[in-house]
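R.M. (postdoc): so does anyone remember the format we settled on? I'll just put the structure tokens first.
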């Protein structure tokens, strides 16, 4: 397939956190607000006068300095973020809006709070408590937390307008980004998709790390270009898979899977669009902040929620995605030393084949991908096993 409009530029934007669009927004006088987790509502960090940057550490190598502070038995994602901060890669941040969620990112953000790491005199780090349940009491508590630790702090430090009108404007912009990304994602449901998983991952990631008002016009142009794109006469893939699991901000991991012959048609992981690009719906009579708190808790598929019925809902959601996107199998990846996703990956590996009939490839990986050969072998074997099952189901010989 021919190259999509802006795709090379998207790839370039992902080479560093302080990319050219971030620098442009800073030159406009906007405040850069970092975050690491879906539980920090993206829309609240895009109020007039500021913009959100979901943190990544692209082109990381060995996080030696961060390992000294955090130990080598913690998830490499958090260590690579701290390493990048120690290198000066996050000095453009005006604040880090932290959440009490995964342990290792808490450790990373605690170091930002306690150490003089970010060389910006205006910088501060603020933690928000996130409930472990999705009931009404949890939503009310979360709303209070967002008011106290996000809205009040932004107003206090930077004079940001945090009125209902400003929040509604931020929600409108957020939903427009969601609409465009989701419309692009619909092309992945085609029998012969006209966009690869690698390409979609680039698009989804730039929508997370770039100022919305600057990246949105580009995304719209890419969508219009995609509508005119023709698929390859002969598809280069052999099977379709869903990529699910923990933090994954590496588009080249997706590219590796696709080089092995599996087209990644859906992304149910922490940096993915499912459910990360679900629009925020405000119910009748509902305050916009309450709508954001409710949306964030109710749509999250994070394994922090451990009630049995919620765990079952996550399996049903993943199976539904695989069916809707016509996937032949599911790859579950987990960052090494990630406690929550280690449990989830183990359970998914058993439940999804047994109860829903989807083959599963279970992967534990590092943030810095040094095991390309081993992963390639695993993916190739998984693809071949799916093909054999298809042959057997059709009455042929393997």
């Amino acid at each position: 397939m021919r190259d999509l409009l802006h795709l090379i530029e998207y790839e370039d934007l992902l080479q560093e956190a302080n990319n050219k669009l971030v620098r442009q927004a800073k030159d406009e006088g906007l405040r850069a607000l970092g975050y690491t987790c879906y539980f920090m509502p993206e829309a609240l960090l895009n109020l007039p006068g500021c913009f959100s940057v979901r943190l990544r550490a692209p082109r990381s190598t060995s996080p030696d300095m961060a390992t000294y502070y955090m130990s080598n038995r913690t998830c490499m994602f958090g260590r690579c973020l701290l390493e990048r901060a120690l290198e000066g890669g996050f000095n453009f941040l005006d604040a880090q809006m932290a959440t009490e969620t995964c342990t290792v990112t808490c450790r990373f953000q605690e170091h930002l709070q306690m150490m003089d790491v970010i060389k910006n005199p205006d910088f501060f780090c603020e933690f928000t408590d996130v409930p472990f349940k999705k009931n009404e009491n949890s939503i009310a508590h979360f709303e209070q937390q967002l008011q106290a630790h996000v809205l009040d702090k932004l107003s206090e430090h930077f004079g940001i307008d945090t009125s209902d009108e400003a929040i509604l404007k931020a929600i409108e912009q957020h939903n427009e980004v969601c609409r465009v990304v989701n419309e692009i994602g619909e092309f992945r449901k085609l029998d012969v998709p006209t966009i690869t998983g690698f390409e979609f991952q680039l698009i989804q990631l730039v929508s997370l790390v770039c100022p919305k008002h600057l990246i949105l016009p580009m995304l719209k142009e890419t969508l219009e270009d995609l509508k005119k794109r023709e698929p390859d006469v002969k598809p280069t893939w052999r099977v379709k898979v869903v990529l699910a699991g923990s933090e994954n901000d590496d588009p080249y991991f997706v590219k590796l899977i696709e080089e092995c012959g599996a087209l990644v048609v859906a992304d149910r992981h922490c940096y993915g669009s499912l459910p990360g690009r679900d629009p925020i719906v405000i119910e009748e009579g509902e305050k916009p902040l309450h709508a954001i708190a409710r949306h964030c808790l109710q749509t999250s598929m994070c394994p922090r929620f451990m009630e049995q019925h919620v765990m079952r809902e996550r399996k049903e959601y993943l199976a539904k995605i695989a069916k809707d996107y016509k996937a032949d199998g599911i790859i579950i990846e987990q960052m090494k030393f990630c406690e929550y996703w280690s449990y989830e990956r183990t359970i998914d590996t058993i439940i999804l084949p047994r109860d829903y009939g989807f083959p599963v490839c279970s992967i534990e990986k590092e943030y810095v991908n040094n095991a390309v050969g081993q992963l390639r072998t695993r993916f190739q074997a998984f693809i071949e096993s799916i093909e054999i099952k298809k042959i057997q189901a059709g009455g042929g010989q393997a």
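R.M.: ...and that's the designed sequence above, right after the tokens. Also worth knowing: The longest strand covers residues 239-245. The two ends are 31 Å apart (CA to CA).
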